[in-house]
Amino acid sequence: MAGLYIHIPFCGSRCVYCGFYSTTALELRQRYVDALCRELNMRKGELGIRNDIHTIYLGGGTPSQITIPQLRQLFDTIYKYNKVATDAEITIECNPDDVTDAFVEGLQTLPVNRISMGAQTFDDTRLKFLHRRHTASQVVEAIDRFRKNGYTNISIDLMYGFPDETLDDWNHDITQALSFKVEHLSAYCLTIEEGTPLQQMLLDGKIMENDEELERQMYETLIDRLETAGYEHYEISNFARQGYRSHHNSSYWNGTPYIGIGAAAHSYDIRTRSWNVSDLHQYIDNIQRGKRPYEEELLDDDTRYNDTITVALRTREGLDLTTLSERHRSYCLQNARRFLNDGLLTLDSVSRFLHLTRRGLFVSDMIMTELIGQ
Questions:
Q1: Does domain 2-253 sit in CATH 3.40.605.10?
Q2: Where in the chain do CATH 1.10.10.920 domains reside?
Q3: How far is Cα 237 from Cα 365, in angstroms, rounded to an integer?
Q4: pLDDT in tens, 115-146
């Protein structure tokens, strides 16, 4: 099994919180798609002939900002150079205001079978604060268009922890999200990333840091309401109806190899991790010359242990201690002892799985930092 990630960095506008590599240079879309296709050709068979592609994920940026003909060109190339499983999960991220009747009709001619859409909030004032292009009503219209055209695997993203947001505000967003009966929901606390406009707003005193206790209450409310509604809380920020986990994202947490195509895209083959340059012009120019512009890191045993800690503990299944070497297992349990005593971690003595508890979920970053090797 293997995954394929395609990074589409184009955005109609930049959101204030976004720390991902993106650009508003829409005039470069065709040159970029041509470069993606060339990189796919350059890297054909990289994961080995026995590794079928089981998941394809178009992320960004905003993949719905490229045209249907450009998407068709991209998928034609993917299938030309890769063996894609017949039951592959194929996801595209969309912005609600891009989801026109024409876009959905065009998408139906492509092998996409899963939609991931950034709703973020159903309050237009908070959407404007984020510099999102869409309105709350456009989320409703977009989901309706997808449903009418037969899409049965839809995921939406939500955010909480806005400046001045109340618990009642957050409950209203959750209620709206549940009304759509989507198959998957991801929810993230609004964080201030270095170098973003949001960070500058904080430095300028235009916003204040959020109350940590209120954020904890919002997270607890999210878990309670979604689990009551029948969603499985299978990863720290992700919830799914039965059978609708994100297989692609799960591959990251389970250590499945994947190839990342495009500017800023990462790849992983168990032995190494590599990442393409985060510069659109440099990426296109190098690919046109037949050279992939990337850096690579050889993963030693300690690095793989650290990676395992930071991904496995995020999941409902937790960390399988039997997969660790004796040295790393001993180190992990020694450092986990105080969290076990404090009720932030729990250990299944039969299966030897280490789990975050409900209380541990909210401080997971701190726990993982203490468990990884220095």
A1: no
A2: 301-371
A3: 13
A4: 999 999 999 999 988 888 899 999 999 999 99
The CATH number that domain 301-371 falls under is 1.10.10.920
Local confidence band at 203 (pLDDT 50, 70, 90 cut-offs): confident
Residues comprising the chain, all counted = 374
DSSP code per residue over 183-219? SEEEEEE----TTSHHHHHHHTTSS-PPPHHHHHHHH
Which stretch of DSSP H or E encloses residue 303? Answer: helix 301-312
Q: How far, in whole angstroms, is CA 132 from its chain's centroid?
A: 18
Which residues partner with 261 through β-bridges? 6
Closest CA relative to residue 170, chosen from 239, 202, 216: 216
- The Cα 225–Cα 227 span in angstroms is 6
pLDDT, tens only, 77-89: 999 999 999 999 9
Q: Quickly state the pLDDT bin for 211 (edges 50, 70, 90).
A: confident
Q: Which burial class, exposed, middle or buried, applies to 204 when counting CB atoms under 10 A from its CB (0-12, 13-18, 19+)?
A: exposed
Confidence of residue 16 (pLDDT cuts 50, 70, 90): low
Residues of the chain with CATH 3.80.30.20: 2-253
The neighbour count for residue 82, using CB atoms within 10 Å, is 22
Rounded to 10°, the helix 29-42/280-288 angle is 50
Q: Is the pTM of this model over 0.90?
A: yes
Is the separation of the CB atoms in 184 and 145 below 8 Å? no
Report the alpha-carbon angle 111-311-21, nearest 5.
60
Strand partners, 110: none
Residue 88 exposure: Cα atoms within 13 Å on the Cβ side: 23
Q: Are 249 and 256 in contact (CB under 8 A)?
A: no
Nearest-10 crossing angle of helices 364-371, 326-341: 140
